């Protein structure tokens, strides 16, 4: 046996004892009778979540899931913002509505003037 492999300590002459032991503080690394030496117990829900996360499939599926999540978050954001009056989009829509209303009012005034003019000429 060689010193390099660590099979015995170099300072001990005549004794070839192992450098380390598995028995630390009187406990040994033996398996339990039911075979669960290094086992963790998780619920079925947790197992299914882990499987679903690992079972993403190809990168395309990952991208599709990512895009779907982004669209969902964008929809939530748009629903939150749609009633805010101080956004650029809301101001643009307000200007457009005001312009359409102004044009409709001008058209109604012209029709009223035309109706009066026609009644004067009919007399």
Automatic annotation (TrEMBL):
Residues 1-37 are annotated as: Disordered. Residues 1-30 have a biased composition (Polar residues). Residues 86-123 form a coiled coil. The keyword Coiled coil applies. Keywords: Coiled coil. It comes from the Eukaryota. This is Uncharacterized protein. The lineage of its organism: Eukaryota, Sar, Alveolata, Ciliophora, Intramacronucleata.
């Amino acid at each position: 046996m060689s010193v390099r492999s660590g099979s015995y300590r170099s300072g001990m002459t005549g004794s070839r004892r192992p450098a380390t032991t598995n028995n630390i503080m009187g406990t040994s690394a033996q398996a339990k009778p039911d075979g669960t030496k290094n086992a963790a117990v998780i619920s079925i829900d947790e197992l299914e979540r882990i499987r679903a996360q690992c079972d993403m499939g190809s990168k395309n599926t990952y991208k599709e899931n990512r895009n779907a999540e982004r669209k969902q978050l964008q929809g939530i954001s748009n629903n939150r913002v749609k009633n805010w009056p101080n956004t650029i989009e809301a101001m643009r829509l307000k200007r457009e509505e005001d312009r359409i209303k102004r044009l409709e009012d001008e058209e109604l005034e012209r029709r009223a003037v035309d109706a009066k003019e026609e009644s004067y000429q009919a007399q």
